[in-house]
Amino acid sequence: MFALVSIGTTIGVIATLIFETWAFFQEVPLWRFLSDTQWTPLFVNPRYGIVVLITATIMVAAIALAVAIPLGLLSAICLSEYAPPPARRWLKPILEILAGVPTVVYGYFALLFVTPLLQQVIPGLQSFNALSAGIVVGIAITPLIASLSEDAIYAVPQSLRQGAYALGATKRETVVGVVLPAALSGIVSACLLAMSRAVGETMIVSIAAGQNPRLTLDPRVSVATMTAFIAQVSLGDTPVGSIEYRTIFAVGMVLFLMTLSLNIFSFWFVRRFQEKYE
């Protein structure tokens, strides 16, 4: 019964998205939604170019992954392969504490600490910008990559390591040439899951990146991501049933399809490249 409640909730969420998105596209043509280069649905002359929000979302997620993947993967390698067992038992829970920090705290950390710090070295950096938001989102998802990657690396059988040592490989050569390829499916799955988390992040980007929808790849300026726009419109100022209200469901559907695609690819990659040992 509890499993059916979970399945029914999922079906209800998807049905709501489909119903409201369909109503949205009865008023806004799909080609206009996908090809327009401006996003101003709340203006007197509305424009509905979702590519503006998608570009900002992907840019913030790319910056976050550029921060989180090296930090998370190196942390996982250190914990699994180099840290003594007592240190591992202490360091891993401390690292995972970062995952429990409220995202609103991360948002103000990005706005009040990271941005002023970056403004001292990066000319033209605005108070609200995609760079600091992406960096702090990367810090927020680092524990996810580190924990899942460490589990995947730690699960590699010791016999593979011992075989590499018997052939004369060094510690670094064993880690790079044997352990990481054996744990590749778990590591990639962790990175894709972290990317889904970065794409769906709301509070950090709403506070630190701003809510200025513009089509740009310059991380120094203010941008609006899909989740930031949903948070902006969901404050209750738009009447239910209006075209402005239905834009959040159209954007939510695009966000849902993006994260669903990442999850499907993750499942396929794990099944395709998973190593099985006896």
Describe the structure.
It is a single chain. The chain has helices at about 1-25, 30-35, 50-80, 85-95, 105-120, 130-155, 160-165, 170-180, 185-200, 205-210, 225-235, 245-275. The chain has a single domain, classed as MetI-like fold, CATH 1.10.3720.10. The mean pLDDT is about 90. The chain is built from 12 helices and no strands. It is mostly helical and about 280 residues long.
Number of helices: 12
- The N- and C-terminal alpha carbons lie at a distance of 37 Å
Helix content: over 70%
CATH class reads: Mainly Alpha
Task: Spell out the blueprint of helices and strands.
Blueprint: H1 2-25, H2 30-35, H3 50-82, H4 85-97, H5 103-119, H6 130-154, H7 158-166, H8 171-182, H9 184-199, H10 203-208, H11 226-233, H12 243-273
Task: Write out key terms for the chains shown.
278 residues; mainly alpha; MetI-like fold; 12 helices; 72% helix; globular
In short:
72% of the residues lie in helices and 0% in strands. By secondary structure, it is an all-alpha fold.
